[in-house]
Amino acid sequence: MVRVAWTGIVWSRPPITDTLAAATPEWPPGTAHGYHGVSIGHLAGEIVRRISGGTLSEYLAGEITGPLGLDCYVRVPDAAMPRMAKMVLPDVESLRLGMQIPEMADFVTALNDPETLTYRALYGSVVMGWESGNDPRTFQVESPSMDGVASAHSLARYFAAMIGEVDGIRLFGPDLVDRIREPQADGMDMILRVRTAWGVGFAVPGGPFWPAPEKITGLFGRSGATGSFAFAFADPRPRPRLRLCAQRGLRTPRRR
């Protein structure tokens, strides 16, 4: 992977999309899976741009968050910046506690080793770190998988519109919801070093990042490292739901 320095435009196209286009797979496609939490946003954003002619943030605002009245953004507008919560950065104690979770030990170790694919995939290919979660520049560029920000209420409303009708708007039909929550990949994640499971575009229960009792099925969603989208999961069945937005980055036994 190419290491890219912050220049003010580096997290936007074309520098990263050109680099992705020139990259080769780390393993034969279809033989394994791995969480690419940074690059997937640029890949998705480029697809949206080529189809719609606009950026992902423009499409989101025009087609989804605007009509639903959501306080939810990719590329945060200046007016909303003062309302953003500050992330509580992880410290040595947080990392130590993370190591106490047996199934997470390999991930935490790899995350702090610049030679691993884990480090390179999550933040080793651009000059960034946990401090970026409190840098206003992080949220004012087009980096769709990293600078998504929402209030808890808007996040709940967003997911509600995926599985049902909200003010006359439904984002996903029942057939698509069934496809989304059907596991497509389940097993050892080559990046996170733990078991993960993925449906179509969303995570599904499986592994330490999303443990769930066997009797609970049909969920889909995603957690987030910096707490902006801490836990946002959708259950199509009629039952109470929870959306949690936390401020502390990284996981500890208490946060679980």
From TrEMBL:
<protein>
    <recommendedName>
        <fullName>Beta-lactamase-related domain-containing protein</fullName>
    </recommendedName>
</protein>
<dbReference type="InterPro" id="IPR012338">
    <property type="entry name" value="Beta-lactam/transpept-like"/>
</dbReference>
<dbReference type="InterPro" id="IPR052907">
    <property type="entry name" value="Beta-lactamase/esterase"/>
</dbReference>
<dbReference type="Pfam" id="PF00144">
    <property type="entry name" value="Beta-lactamase"/>
</dbReference>
<feature type="domain" description="Beta-lactamase-related">
    <location>
        <begin position="16"/>
        <end position="233"/>
    </location>
</feature>
<dbReference type="InterPro" id="IPR001466">
    <property type="entry name" value="Beta-lactam-related"/>
</dbReference>
